[in-house]
Amino acid sequence: MKLSTKWTSVGLSALTLTLFASSTQAHAAERIYWANPSDSYSSHGRGAFSTKGDLLRAYDDAKDGESACVTIYGKMVSSNKYEYRAVCAAGKGNSKDRNLNLVEGTSMKIRGWMLDESSSYDHNYGPWVSGMA
């Protein structure tokens, strides 16, 4: 009887540890970071990076003839180096995605900005938002 009690205790401890590890991994996989352009353009668009799938997305929230963009600086799996990547969405209500593959557990940062596509003028860079991939 004592042997089965010990086995049950060990089994429950292992199950608890497994569930804890799974819940911490699931939590890390759901992290979303947001960034906006600066100043008067802060409501014209936004950018997001989701650690679930390493998805970079730009949202254009204003019909102003400009694109809302987001840039990420992170360590890419393909090169094992830190690199910049960007995506822009043009037209109110539109969004555009870019799938990336960042090295997990490394630092990254994103920031929103605006692009006047007719003149290729990029402006109103927002502050960097830091996080972990």
Structural account:
By secondary structure, the protein is an alpha+beta fold. It is built from one helix and nine strands; from the N terminus they run αβββββββββ. Strands 4, 5, 7, 8 and 9 form a five-stranded antiparallel sheet that branches. The protein has a four-stranded antiparallel sheet with strand order 1-2-3-6, with no helix packed on it. Strand 7 (107-116) and strand 8 (121-123) form a beta hairpin.
Keywords:
single chain; alpha+beta; four-stranded antiparallel sheet; 1 helix
Mass-distribution shape = elongated
The gyration radius over C-alpha positions equals 21 Å
Largest sheet: 5 strands, antiparallel
User: Kindly state the mean pLDDT as a whole number?
Assistant: 84
Beta-strand segment tally: 9
Low-confidence stretches: 1-27
What distance lies between the first and last C-alpha atoms, to the nearest angstrom? 48 Å
Task: Tell me the series of helices and strands, N- to C-terminal.
Answer: HEEEEEEEEE
Share of residues in helices:
10-25%
Annotation field: number of helices: 1
Structural class: alpha+beta
Approximate strand percentage = 35-45%
Helix and strand topology:
Layout lengths: L1 H28 L2 E4 L9 E6 L4 E6 L6 E10 L4 E10 L4 E5 L7 E10 L4 E3 L5 E4 L1
Antiparallel strand pairs: 1-2, 2-3, 3-6, 4-5, 4-7, 7-8, 7-9
